[in-house]
Amino acid sequence: MAGKSRSIMDTKAFQTLYDYYLHHFSKSIKPESAKDKMFESFNCMISSTQNQTEREHFFSRLGNKLKGISLKNDKVMPYSGIPEALGTDCALNHITQMDFSFPYTHENPFPVGEFIDSTEVDAGFIKVFSEIAGFLC
């Protein structure tokens, strides 16, 4: 995830948080016994290079319990980061990449306005949520 968005936080804030979690967070937790499974799970997701084998194994064990949608033009959660986090096979098998004909962003995937074709936006919304509903049923 690249949380660099004016609606989320600026680049400097993102880099500061990322640096903290990558280099200082685990050292700040004392005693070692406080580092439980939840801590380890969180720590595994901070960088694609940390605990990669363990993380990919965890996601592969989820099998058909995992489904995701990635939007092609999403710059906050770009598809390229998904195989890094889940593993290539898991991403290919469980993540659907979608794109729309209208301009959209991570923060506003279904925009409204006078210059936006609401029919296309509605169709995109239905496509995303039909896929989600189909998975949940």
Molecular structure report:
The chain is built from 7 helices and 2 strands. By secondary structure, it is mostly helical. A two-stranded parallel ribbon has the order 1-2. The protein is globular and about 55 Å long.
Oligomer classification: single chain
Strand content: 5-15%
Number of strands: 2
Principal-axes geometry comes out as: globular
* Total number of helices: 7
Mean pLDDT: 88
What is the CA-based Rg, rounded?
18 Å
Number of separate structural domains: 1
Query: Structural class of the secondary elements?
Result: mainly alpha
Proportion of residues in helical segments: 40-55%
What ranges have pLDDT less than 50 throughout 5 or more consecutive residues? none
Task: Briefly summarize what is shown.
It contains seven helices and two strands; from the N terminus they run ααααβααβα.
Outline the fold blueprint.
Layout: H1 11-23, H2 25-28, H3 37-44, H4 52-61, E1 68-71, H5 81-86, H6 88-94, E2 95-98, H7 118-136
Parallel strand pairs: 1-2
Question: Which keywords apply here?
Answer:
globular, 137 residues, two-stranded parallel sheet, mainly alpha
